[in-house]
TrEMBL record:
This protein's name: DUF4229 domain-containing protein
Keywords: Membrane, Transmembrane, Transmembrane helix
Region described as Disordered: spans on this chain: 61-89
Classification via InterPro entries: DUF4229 (IPR025323)
Basic and acidic residues bias (residue ranges): 68-83
Positions of transmembrane segments: 7-25, 31-50
Domain of life: Bacteria
């Protein structure tokens, strides 16, 4: 799910660059300046246009990071020999 959301977000941002670049080329702007303006205009604009998708990706990354942190802490605990709270027998 996370990989799909990240891929979709990246493709949406690149698609916006292409749309801006294409619009500029329709009014006879050369390729490289159109590409430069497309990047400069479209990438910041995508922060507002794709806000929901960006937030979904950020939430997924946070959840993934929390899972990895918990797994890493568990592994470190096992490597130290900790088995949880010590009980007196």
């Amino acid at each position: 799910m996370l990989a799909r959301d990240v891929t979709l977000y990246v493709l949406a941002r690149l698609g916006l660059v292409v749309v801006v670049m294409g619009a500029l080329m329709l009014v006879k702007v050369p390729l490289l300046p159109a590409l430069a303006v497309g990047v400069v205009v479209a990438l910041p604009a995508s922060l507002f246009i794709f806000k929901g998708l960006r937030q979904r990706v950020a939430t997924g990354l946070d959840a993934h990071q929390a899972t990895r942190r918990a797994e890493r802490d568990k592994l470190r605990s096992e490597l130290r020999g900790d088995e949880g709270p010590l009980t007196q027998a």
